[in-house]
Amino acid sequence: MKALVDQYQRSLVSFFLRRSRNVWDAEELTQEVFCKILKRRDIAFSDYNDAYMFTIAWSVLRDRLRREKVRHHEMHVEYDESYAPEEQITPQDILRGQELYDQFLLLLESLSPRVREVFILSRYERLTYNQIAIHRGISISAVEKYMMIALKRMKEMVKEPQ
Question: How far apart are CA 111 and CA 126, in angstroms?
Fold first, then answer.
């Protein structure tokens, strides 16, 4: 196998580089060619010639292009950390989060049982208003009313200065 790699690696990388214009892709595609060869145990390494090697290379390239087309590769944007610097979470952030969570639990406890149940079914159980209405035996407009009450209280809680 080493002899095969030594003989064809440079020409395969050049072949892929002319078609992809990307060094990383060219090297990766070249590796894929050699992986395909390794999987074919029925053909001796000495039986590979230029025509067969480049037939495999074309096949690998076509497979890659098909995959990229199906996955809409041209629409992907690479992640760049310079645009989204990592923010450090401070002990104050943790404390503030815990305080908000405690406030939320108190608010939830302060809601009437019907409003609380409707809110939990909607937001945590992910039931639709129609499903909640059927489950609770109430109208959809009652579900909407209970959700407005709960959400209004949540909004007031978030707006209150701490």
Answer: 19
Distance CA 154, CA 162 (A): 14
pLDDT tens digits for 43-96?
Answer: 666 666 778 888 889 999 998 888 888 877 667 777 777 776 677 888 999 998
For the entire predicted model, the pTM comes to 0.45
* CATH of region 91-159, choose from 3.40.109.10, 3.40.50.620, 1.10.10.10, 3.30.470.10: 1.10.10.10
Count of helices and strands (H, E) across the chain = 7, 0
**Measured between alpha carbons, how far is residue 4 from residues 50, 53, 92, 146 in Å?**
11, 10, 60, 72
What is the tens place of the pLDDT at every residue in 121-136? 999 999 999 999 999 9
Residue written as token pair 């209970």? 146
